[in-house]
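User: Hello! I'm new to structural biology and keep hearing that structure can be predicted from sequence alone. Could you demonstrate with Serine acetyltransferase? Please show me the input and the output so I can see what each looks like.

Assistant: Of course. The first part below is the input, the amino acid sequence of Serine acetyltransferase. The second part is the output, the predicted structure written as tokens.
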Amino acid sequence: MPTTRAKLAELDPVWSQIIEEGHVAIGQEPLLGGLIHSSVLHHGTIEAALAYRTSLKLASGEMSEQMLREICDEAYSEDPELAAAARADIVAVYDRDPACHRFLQPLLFFKGFQALQSYRVANWLWRVGRRDLSYFFQMRCSEAFGVDIHPAARIGRGIMIDHAHSIVIGETAVVGDNVSMLHSVTLGGTGKEEEDRHPKIGDGVLIGAGAKVLGNIHIGHCSRIAAGSVVLDAIPACKTVAGVPARIVGEAGCDQPSMTMDQILRSGA
């Protein structure tokens, strides 16, 4: 008879794939056996594995791994959307990052994915009114990963943050589903204004390395922002923008720029 853990894996294909890949990885590199057992094979669900991995990465002398683990376990128990979003994020990384060959890799090795899951727990804390604790998660995420996402920001599913160094996402920013961004992206404000002051990124947008999107502006769905651009004005859907300040230089060139990850500017596209 299949065990309870096996039955759960059958109902969760992403987690089932991660478990299978974990066994394969140990066979190929036995020295990683301890890491993979503690991070993956020891756990019965993806929620438990995510809570373990997040608490391990964010633990410090100020707050123990055990305390953080209890907070993360509570978050995943109270809000199933957190793990659902994490599954979509894993698939997004696997589909879009040519350096990702297994579902296992984001969970174990990719700080963009790990930072995003830390943000998701912080966002849950923010939404249930535990603001100071959410700020602690933000601080530790910034210190551990070099990724600074305000816990009040709203970020959808299927997000891929490639390399993920020096990402900054402000308090009132909104990021839609299936967005891809590279390192050194800033979704920031333009000064000391309060209230709604950060960008709103539509679904399927691709944001190139080093791009800065500033102010309460809307970036239309399935648009492309070229690397190094500074975007100060709203962008219609399905356009490509480039430059400082950014200007429309053509159409997006495809239906889903965030999926194709094509960042080459071509004439008329």
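User: So the tokens describe the shape?

Assistant: Right, they're a compact way of writing down the 3D structure. Reading them back into a model, for example: The first strand starts at residue 147 and ends at 149.
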